[in-house]
Design brief:
Elements lengths: L1 H20 L3 E3 L16 E4 L6 H4 L2 E5 L5 E9 L3 H16 L4 E4 L10 E13 L3 E11 L10 E10 L5 H23 L3
Parallel strand pairs: 1-4, 2-5, 2-6
Antiparallel strand pairs: 3-4, 6-7, 7-8
Helix pairs in contact: 3-4
């Protein structure tokens, strides 16, 4: 019986801490909306994990303040690891933009190597709620199969989309829009346009 009474203070402490913690809102990236489609003789595309800078890797959503400082929102978190979520979104966008190609993320699931491999390195991914979302960096295309070596490219990109209001839901939607724009940019390059 005395063991039961010793455990009550610990149980009360855990209950108090749980009550103080509060719920954390988690935001999913909406699916990339279909954009323009491109004709290409590329049959398969592998998207490697998007390389994000430290300020964009955290699951806690950060926004740019009026003073130019990135700050964690303390109330909003991404529902998935940002690099994984953006990689999956980019693959979805490329799959939609290149309907004749099979698109997948790494590790490559097929036995035959991909015709084109997409590698993206992000320099900045900055949200200014009520203003805009900026994404810039570089991507390169290689050919693991060797079938499309003439398509090897190295390109820089700088994209901006508006964020219509200051909600984190609007920030999440802007992320999907900007990934669609990046997928469009990459698909045009793959298609040779």
């Amino acid at each position: 019986m005395s063991n039961v009474f010793r455990k009550i203070p610990a149980l009360l402490l855990l209950m108090t801490l749980a009550a103080c913690g509060g719920a954390q809102d988690r935001y999913l990236l909406p699916d990339v909306a279909p954009g323009q489609t491109y004709r290409s003789n590329v049959r398969s595309v592998e998207v490697t994990s998007v390389d994000l800078p430290l300020h964009a890797e955290d699951t806690e959503i950060s926004v740019l303040g009026e003073d130019g400082v990135l700050r964690a929102t303390k109330s909003g978190f991404w529902a998935d690891e940002p690099d994984r979520a953006l990689t999956e979104q980019l693959a979805l966008g490329l799959d939609q933009a290149l309907p004749s190609a099979s698109v997948a993320t790494e590790p490559w699931p097929l036995e035959t190597p991909a015709d084109v491999q997409v590698n993206v390195k992000v320099r900045n991914l900055v949200s200014s709620p009520g203003k805009s979302l900026t994404l810039n960096g570089q991507y390169n295309l290689t050919s693991p199969s060797g079938n499309y070596s003439h398509r090897e490219r190295l390109r820089r990109f700088s994209l901006t989309v508006p964020i219509p209001d200051e909600s984190l839901d609007a920030v999440a939607k802007a992320h999907s829009e900007i990934i669609r724009d990046l997928a469009d940019h990459i698909a045009r390059t793959i298609a040779g346009q």
